[in-house]
């Protein structure tokens, strides 16, 4: 069985990936599961640059350790708000500074939008995924979902900016939508839908 080594230890992210790829004959593992303790500096200016850098560093390590029959998966994702010229963007995870703190990030985003009316609070959740197979071939997949940044936190599900990201079709934030529904419409699920096709094409 081929193994997908996800360049992350975020348990929420791993669970989401496992749920969406569950019917494919492939094992999904985190870096910690593989005993890999590498922190890749995300200093790119785009989601694509960051995801590729993470995937390539892990790929190089695995090749140096003589791994085979694997696919490295890395992603970079975040929220891009129209009224803030695309902020937080690639700085979404550390918007309020280091170390990363979701509560403080949400507080800062709300503060920066406090005078912005509802109709101008649109934004996108973006997820860019890079895959590199054991032959060194890289693949890209991206998912984008539009929404509105609310004026207060709503819901306890999800993580990150989910309680602020309102989906008009559902009249709920990602923090209020259950995981089953979210896994059908989220930016990561849209990107992973493309990943499914890529993984199934890799021999």
Which key features would you list for this structure?
203 residues; 7 strands; alpha/beta; 30% helix; 25% strand; Maf protein; magnesium; globular; dITP diphosphatase activity; ITPase-like_fam
Quick structural gist:
By secondary structure, this protein is α/β, with parallel strands linked by helices. It is 30% helix and 25% strand. It has a single domain (3-202), classed as Maf protein (Alpha-Beta Complex).
What does this structure look like?
The model has no long low-confidence stretch (mean pLDDT 94). Helix 4 (179-185) packs across helix 5. The chain has helices at residues 11-20, 47-64, 102-112, 179-185, 187-201; strands at 2-6, 26-30, 70-81, 122-133, 138-149, 165-167, 172-173. It has a seven-stranded mixed β-sheet with strand order 2-1-3-4-5-6-7. It is globular, with a radius of gyration of 17 Å. With 203 residues, the protein is of the alpha/beta class. 34% of the residues are buried. The chain starts with a strand and ends with a helix. It has a single domain, classed as Maf protein (Alpha-Beta Complex), CATH 3.90.950.10.
Q: What's the helix count?
A: 5
Largest sheet: 7 strands, mixed
Helix content: 25-40%
Q: What distance lies between the first and last C-alpha atoms, to the nearest angstrom? A: 11 Å
Count structural domains: 1
Tell me, briefly, the overall form. Answer: globular
Tally of DSSP β-strands = 7
* Unreliable segments of 5+ consecutive residues: none
Assign the structural class, choosing from mainly alpha, mainly beta, alpha/beta, alpha+beta, or little secondary structure: alpha/beta
What spatial order of strands do you see in the largest sheet?
Answer: 2-1-3-4-5-6-7
Instruction: Spell out the helices and strands N to C.
Output: EHEHEHEEEEHH
CA radius of gyration is 17 Å
CATH architecture classification: Alpha-Beta Complex
- CATH class assignment: Alpha Beta
CATH fold group:
Maf protein
Subunit structure: Homodimer.
GO molecular function, one term: nucleotide binding
Active site: 76
Catalytic activity: XTP + H2O = XMP + diphosphate + H(+); ITP + H2O = IMP + diphosphate + H(+); dITP + H2O = dIMP + diphosphate + H(+)
